[in-house]
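Workshop exercise sheet. Pairs work together: one partner reads the sequence aloud, the other fills in the structure field after running the prediction. Swap roles for the next sheet.
Pair: D.N. / O.F.
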Amino acid sequence: MMNNAARVVTCYGITKDPKTNNFTMVMNYAENGSLRHHLNNSFNSMDWNKKCEILYDIASGLKKIHDNRLIHHDFHCGNILNNSRSWTYITDLGLCHPANEKPFQSGVYGVLPYVAPEVLRGKEYTQASDIYGFGIIAYEICTGLPPYHDIAHDEFLAAKICQGLRPNSNYKIPQLISDIIKQCWDADPLKRPNAEELYELFRDLHYDENKKNSIINKQTKEADEVNERANSFNKKLPSSSSTGILSYTTHTQAVYTSRLLDFKNLPEPKNAEYPGN
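Structure field:
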């Protein structure tokens, strides 16, 4: 089974292939695959209540990890799963390590768009680095599109991220959610909320979304109206193919698998003003 309360995939044990001697972790099967795969297939049918539920699930899982004084260390949309009940779980804790211990692996390893700017410059991963990744994931859930999907994931992008570049879309996000996301990806790790705060914020938003006169309910309705008008004017919002699958073009050098990131002489992280949500 999965750890329903914590929203972290349960590991049953480890097995070894007798031919290759490779080890494999045995975990429950997630029918809908990664969250990225689920967004591709189902984003256009998701309402804001569902998006808030997903964010709440992920915040719950991250809180559990951080409560145990751990750091995920490779937090991105490919390491989040969705099952047949549409419940969302964090997985792939292979690089997870105690917050008070140095990692066993030197260098920066991860998916560039989700890696915090201080880590790109060579500082150690912290729980605040996970929070930055959460902010990027949250924006992806809200807009449907992978972060920086239309540009190369190279040293130039790493430098721009350190200079304050963040994902941007014409897709309207409710202000309460947008404000939380911006706090998560602040260039100063000390200004980011912790996992406990995220859990409480998205728990409240998830339940308040069902209340007719709540602030978040009014904001989600406004966002839907803005996005619907934008679609009617053919603006670049997430669109659906004839099969209902989310349609977008990914740059040939956009990489969404974890890899070693070795960038030199990146600028000091800072925030920058940017348009949009």
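Discussion prompt: Strands lie at 11-16, 23-27, 70-71, 80-82, 88-90, 97-98, 108-110, 239-240, 246-247, 259-261. What would you look at next?
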